[in-house]
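Worked example 2:
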Amino acid sequence: MLLRHIRYFLAVAEHRNFTRAAAALHVSQPALSQQIKQLEALLGVQLFDRSGKSVRLTDAGEAWMGHAKLGMQHLHAGARAIQDVGTAHRGVLRCAAPPTLSLYLIGPLIARFHALHPGVTVSFLEIAQEDIEAMLINDELDIGIAFSPQQPKELDYTPLYEEQLGFVTGAGHRLAARSAALPLAAFAAEPLVLLNKSFATRQQIDAYCASHGIAAKVAVEVNAIGALVEIVRQGTLATVLPNPISAAYTDLHAVALLPPMPSRHVVYAWRKGAYRTAASKALVDVLTDLVRDLTSGAQ
């Protein structure tokens, strides 16, 4: 059995079509079909049902799929280990974080990391928490920065700090100078610009409102954290954001909520049993130092 047999099997299983799989692999369809037939002969079973309009896995194919994926993960990890050779002088670091964290944490993190390890190419994704977890499990990321308590058993999480959400206005908002906490009734009456419901931050806001029997007054809904911040900075709509974001902008003003929203834990995560590259361990060192500076008020 050859490595290409596994690659070809996984491509057909993903695309459920020999022609599309062949195109993705940059091989001819007859060559791909021949390789799959060789694999089936080696295993002594039929892996694909080709009788319908689309190709589907047989029971034997389903049983072998997990082992094939795991085998590819181990082979890729081995290749990274050879390239890594125990130092963070070269290679590629694959990492990700949710949008609200990327707005204030990722910029200084990557800047510090690159200054210390300029030979490492950083591949960073700004994606939702569930996508980070799925990509870690599938060995498509080396490390993710996310929130607890979502903790799939396949991942190891290490706490970093607690993040508090608060009511945030721009400088021109009538509540910008308010020092007293904002009660629930006043919060419910304020027109807000919020992230859409696919974001973990919005889900936490909605859960807070539901737990207190109120509904947020959503005037504008966006799918980009940068757009949200600019709308608040330049207009008269308020929002709810993590306190570190409002602290990073001189023209954003945080007003405490009464009762406050529950805090959430920021963590870093990697797949259990995965090879931990020197670059990913170096990123953790830089991240730990940065968080210490942020939480102590250092610049």
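The mean pLDDT is 88. The chain is about 45% helix and 20% strand.
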